[in-house]
Amino acid sequence: MKINEKFTKAQRPVKVIQFGEGGFLRGFADWMLQKLNEKGLFDGSIAVVQPIREGMCDMLTAQDCMYTHIIRGAEGVEKSVIDVISHCVKPYEDFEAYLSLADNPDARFIISNTTESGIAFRDTDKATDTPPESFPAKLTLLLKRRFDKGLRGFILLPCELIDRNGDNLKRTVLQYAALWELGEDFAAWVEKENVFCNTLVDRINTGYPKGEELDLGYEDDMVNTSEFFHLWVIETEADIEAELPFSAAGLNVIVTRDALERYRTRKVRILNGAHTSMTPYALLSGLETVKDCMDDGEMSAFLRGCLFEEIIPSLDMSKEELTQYASDVLVRFSNPYIKHYLASISLNSVSKYKVRVLPSVLSYKEKFGKYPTRLVFSLAKLIEFYKNGDPKDSAEVIEYMKRASLEEILSNSELWGEDLSGLLDEVKAYENSSL
Predict the structure, then answer these.
(1) pLDDT digits 0-9 by tens, 34-43
(2) Which site in 205, 296, 308, 394 is 20 to 30 Å from 91, CA atoms measured?
């Protein structure tokens, strides 16, 4: 028995157009909208657009766009049937069906997750393409159709993992409007009648649990899994909560006018910084996953020291808030259902250290007059990993790190954004040694 044969889907008006049918949005935004519906706070559904030629919309459609979402972690297991998706549209097969989504006056929101490279301008895209290749180009034509119909604009909630994603999406749409000479009135309508929100998203979605026996009582080819933790920070001056009352539904969604950067800094320095600080050291120690690190007494103590004694003190934010967030991160790292491989985290470790860890090192030095021991040790282990381990980076960076001296590496401002020769004595003390 298929999931759509066991459950009957509620029929609700389409209020959301969503670009992307992957596991992240289905376990994040769609799961949240499902919660709003269940609490009687939304009464809407989603039309999903498959933004690329090949995707999972056929599999979704085959089961009436219903699927099971399973949340798993140290907190337990929670299962729910998600029926918030109304239908799927494939622009490469039926472009008119795609454009006609703009004709629906009930449609109010646009959500997207088209990967980090999805919000990009391609000057080869044409207004006559059916469809153009890039997501912003497709979106521009959808907005033009909406404008021509004389309907109100949208609230756009891009979830792509780039800085200022809403601002970048808006700028790219306006680039297409200018390239295609769609008119000043249309450009003004895009600017004034549509709300492009900047967002920060945070939830680990682990997709279909391959190789596991699922006792669901029905067949479901689109099962999705995630951790319990979820965070959506939305920066906008619009009153989002009036139409999407996330707080009333008990969801961890923060709507702010100007504080997105604070939450981004918190995530990058604590969550991402923790990953990058421990990964080279852990790989050199023979560990394989993040969970292995949490189960290893030495590595767990090192990580906690990085977080609570060096990273958090370097930040000018509420210590109580940062401590709670870091504690949540450790719970997430301990999730027995997630195999987060250190090898994948180690990709481009040099550039990651520059963005995620080095700001904490420099801030700590400025505040306390000395360098943080563990974070400097992690830099020494990173350099050792590039020289003696199996780094994953560009061939140029790997070759340079293997042949260059420690002095040359630290003084290379192209790698770190500045000359780090001042760290030479501290890093040298940890070369090929334990903390």
Answers:
(1) 999 999 999 9
(2) 205
